[in-house]
Amino acid sequence: MAEFIVGLTGGIGSGKTTVANLFAEQGIVLVDADIIAREVVAKDSDGLRQIGEKFGPQMLTPEGNLNRAALREQIFHHPEDREWLNALLHPMIRSRMLAQVKAANSPYVIMVVPLLFENGLDKLVNRTLVVDISPKLQLQRTIERDKVSKEQVQNIINSQSDRNSRLNKADDVIDNQGEITALQAQVLALHNKYLQLADPIHP
Question: What domains lie within the chain, and their CATH numbers?
């Protein structure tokens, strides 16, 4: 079991996945909140069953998967339903994340959580790491990656913690505005730092 947890976060388009994968290349186990969030509403899951019971069969596709568009529409028009959904799913996601941390066999674990500070999950980690880029680059990269409009990306950015707030709460920051080699060097330096911090005989 890994006793030391690093919470990795950053705004949309900042490069969290790229950074996480560089840590994985060093043999570090990743616990990804987005992947777990999809698992808890997968076909035949308890989460999906409860969503169907609450909102009706239109929440399921003909194949029995979650109809994400219908659910988005529902919680957009009914804020109280968003609260119900969060109350259902957040404990499930949290317990799965902690179970994966417990099962991890690397010296420390990287917990990748887009809304680490917003959802109070920074309380579960020993150290927080923010991947940072400028808002202009954030817009540009996300539009190119997801093929969506500037307005859509701006709405997502506005729904997340603002850049200064994230940076003020971060223990460590990775600047992802340069070349991949600069990114690799920053990850390696932090990897060595975390190995020291995770060492039980470290003072």
Answer: 1-28+107-202 (3.40.50.300), 34-105 (no CATH)
Q: List binding-site positions.
A: 13-18
Contact 161, 118 (CB under 8 A): yes
Binding positions for ATP are 13-18
pTM tops 0.90: no
Burial of 27 (0-12, 13-18, 19+ CB in 10 A): exposed
pLDDT at residue 117 in the model: 93
- Residue-wise pLDDT tens digits, 17-27: 999 999 999 99
Nearest to 4 by CA among 196, 186, 185, 203: 196
CA 59 to chain centre: 24
- Which residues in the chain belong to E strands, given as ranges? 5-9, 29-32, 109-112, 127-132, 172-175
Contact 85, 75 (CB under 8 A): yes
CA–CA gap between residue 55 and residue 60 (Å, rounded):
10
